[in-house]
Design brief:
Strand order of the largest sheet: 1-2-4-3-5-6-7-8
Mean pLDDT: 95
Distance between the termini: 34 Å
Radius of gyration: 18 Å
Number of strands: 8
Largest sheet: 8 strands, mixed
Number of helices: 14
Structural class: alpha/beta
Helix content: 40-55%
Low-confidence stretches: 296-302
Shape: globular
Length: 302
């Protein structure tokens, strides 16, 4: 394991969620009038993607991050569905365990699909807490517009996926990641190696084919999830690295057009991982939006 990931491990703890060990990191003041921020990470990485921005985001509020099962430092069971529906349930139960009753929601990549399931449940009064705002960052919710990489397509194959997962190397992973940044040298080798270490932890790379079937769920539940976005009444921020070759700019434009009253912020020179490419600029954009939508009610529990 990389030194960076070991350091991240030391900052967090594990919650037992229905027999699964789910890794969580909390930072910032726990008693503050500002609602907390909960963060959902992307595929195939982990909550560690937000480590460079955590100090900035948690200066004045509690920030809660978790690794979904199958990712990072959480459990990676062989016999598990890895459905986005299951991942949404894990997030809900983890937040309940931590005593959250309301929060701002921030999601990146894979996490944006979990977020849309949460919003669909909210619409049906099936969430045990409320969101104050939603920030969606570089996710392929509109799967019909996404430009998926060949590796993503192969991993979802029941025959080829296991072979691709077993044969992938750190060198191959570095090249793949650099191809989706706004600039190939935007992120250090050490940071990318930490991402790779998180994937390989507890043989997590062998779970990638099962996890990759979430791409099919984006089609299967398209009406449920996009419908919830189109009817969303929460303050919504579409925050996008404009040079993303996977979750392309057209997705951001479509989301902004269909979510009533949404705010669209472009990060013009950044790609698929803007929080790693320019951590300060990205965190400032996140904070500038959510601070405008704090409820300001100090009597509401965090």
């Amino acid at each position: 394991m990389s030194h960076a990931l070991e350091g991240w491990r030391s900052q967090g703890r594990w919650l037992d969620i229905h027999g699964l060990q789910v890794f969580v990191v909390e930072s910032g003041p726990t008693s503050h009038e500002r609602p907390p921020l909960v963060v959902l990470h992307g595929f195939p990485t982990s909550s560690h993607d937000f480590e460079p921005t955590l100090a900035l985001l948690s200066r004045d509020r509690r920030v809660v991050l978790l690794d979904f099962p199958g990712f990072g430092l959480s459990a990676k069971p062989r016999d598990y569905s890895y459905s986005l529906l299951e991942q949404a349930e894990v997030a809900v139960l983890a937040w309940q365990r931590l005593g959250l009753r309301r929060a701002h929601l921030l999601a990146h990549d894979y996490g944006t699909s979990v977020a849309t399931e949460l919003l669909a449940r909210r619409e049906r009064d099936l969430l045990p807490f409320e969101f104050d705002s939603v920030t969606l960052c570089n996710g392929s919710m509109h799967i019909e517009l996404a430009q998926l990489q060949a590796t993503q397509q192969l991993l979802r194959s029941s025959t080829l996926g296991p072979w691709v997962a077993r044969l992938a190397t750190k060198r191959f992973f570095r090249a793949r990641m650099r191809s989706i940044f706004g600039s190939p040298d935007a992120v250090s080798d050490a940071r990318i190696d930490a991402m790779w270490a998180g994937i390989r932890e507890a043989d997590g790379h062998l779970r990638l084919p099962a996890i990759s079937r979430y791409l099919d769920e984006r089609t299967q539940f398209w009406s449920r999830w996009i419908g919830a976005l189109r009817r969303l009444t929460l303050p919504t921020h579409v925050l996008w690295g404009k040079r993303d070759p996977v979750a392309v700019a057209a997705i951001a434009e479509t989301l902004h057009g269909e979510i009533t009253g949404s705010t669209l912020t472009w990060l013009d020179d950044l790609g698929h991982y803007p929080m790693l490419e320019q951590p300060r600029a990205w965190a400032q954009a996140v904070d500038a939006f959510i601070i405008r939508h704090d409820d300001g009610d100090a009597s509401s529990p965090p």
